[in-house]
Amino acid sequence: MGSIRPSNIKRIAEEIVDNNPGIFNEDFENNKKILSEMLKNSVTKKTMNAIAGYVTRYILKKKSKEKSEMEQLGLA
Hints:
By secondary structure, the protein is mainly α.
């Protein structure tokens, strides 16, 4: 069973990813480093790590969705 993240974590993470395309990837440590620079002194370390974790999952989910859509169209 996975942990359920609060909606504010999801909302913040999705907004950050959508407003900054191409910056984040599937690497949690990289995403955490980028977020620490973006959100400096605005959130706690625990919250920042939760956002970085969801950003990572969100990126993976988007890529998986894009891949399945391409397969359905017969392009892959």
